[in-house]
Amino acid sequence: MQRLFGRRRMTAVDRRPALLSMAALMILLLPTLLLITSTQKTTALPLAVAGNSADIPPAESGLIASLDVISTDRGYLVEAKLRKSDVLATESDVETKKWVVENDTELQDTLRQLKNRDNLRTRIRLKPLANAKTQTVIHLLDLLKGDREGELFPETLILGEDGQ
């Protein structure tokens, strides 16, 4: 009986077509992949602008109930409402303390003392002068954010003339 397919001798497999197709894929896919991907990391900073004072989340409940820095013609007025630490005191029992400071270093020293009293507090309110330039307000924001010892109050609320 004769075989339908005769026995052939095994010849060496030609690998050139496979290598050629892989090279063609690399020539097409690699540049496309490099064009659509970016090696730069993109970051986003959240910007929260509240419509009114009711939209602002409440501050932390620590020793300091509220902390305000008010710009004056001669310097700054730091006003802190401190919760009483008496056993019988309620949440609303506060004591108001005021400091008049004349320059930036005194301001940061006063804020550092307050930060050491309530280390978890991150929010402060700033009321600049009505005619303050943008550069001055940015400088004040930088002063309130941190000093040479580290972070002070990174969350700053800027108050208008009406106090809101």
In short:
With 164 residues, this protein is of the alpha/beta class.
Largest beta-sheet characterization = 5 strands, mixed
Strand order of the largest sheet: 3-2-1-4-7
Mean pLDDT: 81
CATH architecture assignment name of the domain at 59-158: 2-Layer Sandwich
Strand content: 15-25%
Query: What series of H and E elements makes up the topology?
Result: HEEEHEHEEE
Characterization of the model:
The protein is of the alpha/beta class and about 160 residues long. The chain has a domain at about 60-160: Nucleotidyltransferase, domain 5 (2-Layer Sandwich). About 30% of the residues lie in helices and about 25% in strands. It is built from three helices and seven strands; from the N terminus they run H-E-E-E-H-E-H-E-E-E. The chain has helices spanning about 15-35, 105-115, 135-145, and strands spanning about 65-70, 75-85, 95-100, 125, 145, 150, 155-160. The strands form two sheets. It has a five-stranded mixed β-sheet with strand order 3-2-1-4-7, covered by helices on one side. Strands 5-6 form a two-stranded antiparallel ribbon. A hairpin with a 4-residue loop joins strand 1 and strand 2 (about 75-85). The chain is elongated, with a radius of gyration of 34 Å. The N and C termini lie far apart (about 105 Å). About 10% of the residues are buried.
